[in-house]
Amino acid sequence: MVILVMATSVQSQGGLKAGFYSSSCPGAEAIVRSTVESHFKKDPTVAAGLLRLHFHDCFVQGCDGSVLIAGSSAERSALPNLGLRGFEAIDDAKTQLEASCPGVVSCADILALAARDSVDLSDGPSWQVPTGRRDGRVSSSQGLNLPSPLDSVTVQRQKFAAKGLDDHDLVTLVGAHTIGQTDCQFFRYRLYNFTTTGNADPSISQSFLAQLQTLCPKDGDGTKRVALDIDSQNKFDVSFFKNVRDGKGVLESDQRLWEDAATRNIVQNYAGTIRGLLGFRFDFEFPKAMIKMSSIEVKTGSDGEIRKICSKFN
């Protein structure tokens, strides 16, 4: 499904522009696409991994590929980033791009393109990605202020606002969880000992609680992975929002979106009853929110560098 967000609105996103590599490396986007596709065919869950990788990159020092740097004190070694995956697909695309256009395409742009391709491959919308990012020269595991599954809506709102993103962007981007997964350890407290009462989180629907307790037994494996959208985990659709509406949000931070008047209104709009006729259309709004997010604090022009290998500085 191709949705063209008007090119005029993307030309000036922080100095980025759609088709940035059209003359310097004409095959760049096709190489990223075919690489993501080959990884996706082996494991469709890599799509959510690549989307999350881009998100975590942008929320720390802007979209500059800093999350890709390997090393014990680098960003990807920080606690909130330990579950990140999809690095191999990015490295694979970079290797091919270096063979065809050495020193031209940034790792930060590969991340932005791979995120778009992941959504498209999961039956979601496609969009023109403004490119021209350069790679950062700093990556530190200290002071990461990433959104957490424990965050209240107030805290989520503050973290997004710090990056120039509003409530609409927040709910829209969290909708990426329609293809996400999480570990039992990140939500099991909601099932057995919420707020240390020894009871379950009352916002979870009773039938769903039983389903989650079966998937994540009290003393079971905390690293077992569970879909964030139980109904259609490999399909990029609005069922995630319907789940939140119905008390079937897996993460506490997702379910809380239903308890705040402003975010509830947006969730309700996306959940809708007649697709496309009520309120906002998720497949139209998601590309706009992604373009906005992927323009956070970007480095362009002579800032930063174009890495030869994504996991290390030049």
Describe this entry's structure for a reader.
The protein is mostly helical. The chain has helices at residues 7-11, 28-42, 46-58, 87-100, 107-121, 153-161, 167-174, 188-192, 206-215, 239-245, 252-255, 261-271, 282-293; strands at 17-18, 130-131, 181-183, 225-227. The strands form 2 sheets. Strands 1-2 form a two-stranded antiparallel sheet. α7 (167-174) packs across α12 and α10 (239-245) crosses α12 (261-271). The protein is globular and about 55 Å long.
Fold blueprint:
Blueprint: H1 7-11, E1 17-18, H2 28-42, H3 46-58, H4 87-100, H5 107-121, E2 130-131, H6 153-161, H7 167-174, E3 181-183, H8 188-192, H9 206-215, E4 225-227, H10 239-245, H11 252-255, H12 261-271, H13 282-293
Antiparallel strand pairs: 1-2, 3-4
Helix pairs in contact: 2-4, 2-5, 3-5, 7-12, 7-13, 10-12
Strand fraction equals: under 5%
Order of helices and strands: HEHHHHEHHEHHEHHHH
Count of individual beta strands: 4
pLDDT averaged residue by residue: 92
Q: Tell me the span between the first and last alpha carbons.
A: 38 Å
Label the structural class.
Answer: mainly alpha
Task: Please state the overall shape, judged from the principal axes of the Cα atoms.
Answer: globular
Largest pleated sheet:
2 strands, antiparallel
State the share of residues found in helices, binned by percent.
Answer: 40-55%
Number of helices: 13
Detail the poorly predicted runs. 1-12
Q: Over the alpha carbons, how many angstroms does the gyration radius reach?
A: 19 Å
Main-sheet strand order equals 1-2
